[in-house]
Write a structure and sequence with these properties.
The complex is a heterodimer of chains A (about 160) and B (about 110). By secondary structure, chain A is of the alpha+beta class. Chain A folds into two domains: about 40 residues; about 100 residues, no CATH class. Helices cover about 60% and strands about 10% of the residues of chain A. Chain A has a three-stranded antiparallel beta sheet with strand order 1-3-2. Chain A is elongated. Chain B is mostly helical and about 110 residues long. Chain B has one domain. Chain B is built from three helices and no strands. In chain B, helix 1 runs antiparallel to helix 2. The termini of chain B are far apart. Classes of the chains: A alpha+beta (about 160), B mainly alpha (about 110). The interface between A and B is large, with 34 and 42 residues.
Chain lengths: ~160, ~110
């Protein structure tokens, strides 16, 4: 199953990047796609739920727009702080618990924290992430656990 | 298309604005961690907006598809680079300036 989806994704990637449909280039693309698929599976052994997490694609359709909106909101907050004459920052470090079952889920959560302006995940520990927040309000928003719950639901897709 | 031109310019100007604000924050912030908040996070945000503006210029062509690829690559790699910088700073013993009352991090 994962082989088929990787081959389809790579073929689409090749066609969209090249935009040429001459026989030689199509054959070269086919050869490249098959070679890459063989290499990731047999030699690197990364064609699994971590290396090619295609089972997450349906949930990504709801998680990514939510995350983008969070980024826009937080980005505007950070912009206001930077342009404020008194620079009202209150930096703090907090540990937020993680409830994800797999490493993929924890990476998704940590990357979501970093992508959201105002919070950076500094260190991944077992069961928690050490986060540096630009303001106390940003840390409090993260401590509610909303993003943790959503990324756990995202990861739990089957 | 006048509408697409206006949308395109709106996105490009907004992206330029956020990139400049990121650079401005980089200068104003007091230590490396708070500076990362300004540069490492606002910059990809601004660049994404600029690239969306480019997409409106390109229209429904393969160029737009390539710009989408760049945006996706940026959104996957920039938090990793930002996290790597913050983690390297902490491991080298650079203490973040914190406001009173919050926990000081123990070195891992």
């Amino acid at each position: 199953m994962r082989h088929v989806s990787l081959i389809l994704a790579l073929a689409a990637f090749w066609l969209l990047l090249s935009g040429f449909f001459k026989p030689f280039l199509l054959l070269a693309g086919l050869g490249s796609v098959l070679a890459v698929t063989w290499f990731t599976d047999r030699r690197m052994k990364v064609l699994d739920f971590e290396g090619h997490p295609v089972h997450l694609s349906v949930n990504a359709l709801t998680y990514w727009p939510w995350l983008l909106w969070e980024i826009v909101k937080a980005g505007w907050d950070v912009t206001k702080i930077i342009l404020h004459p008194r620079l009202p920052i209150s930096p703090c470090m907090i540990r937020v618990p993680t409830s994800q079952a797999t490493d993929v889920g924890r990476v998704i959560y940590a990357n979501s924290i970093t992508l959201t302006p105002g919070t950076i995940s500094v260190e991944l520990e077992s069961g928690s992430i050490l986060v540096h927040a630009l303001t106390q309000a940003g840390a409090d928003g993260l401590a509610t656990g909303d993003m943790d719950r959503r990324s756990t639901a995202f990861e739990a897709a089957r | 298309m006048l509408l697409f031109d206006l949308l395109s310019w709106g996105f490009i100007l907004a992206g330029g604005f956020f990139t400049i604000v990121g650079a401005f924050g980089l200068i104003r912030m007091p230590d490396i961690y708070t500076r990362l908040h300004a540069s490492g996070v606002l910059d990809p945000f601004g660049v994404t907006l600029i690239l969306i503006g480019f997409m409106f210029q390109a229209g429904l062509t393969l160029v737009t598809v390539k710009l989408v690829f760049i945006v996706i690559l940026l959104l996957f790699t920039s938090p990793v680079a930002c996290h790597a910088l913050a983690r390297a700073a902490l491991h080298h013993g650079i203490r973040p300036r914190l406001t009173d009352g919050s926990e000081t991090p123990s070195k891992p």
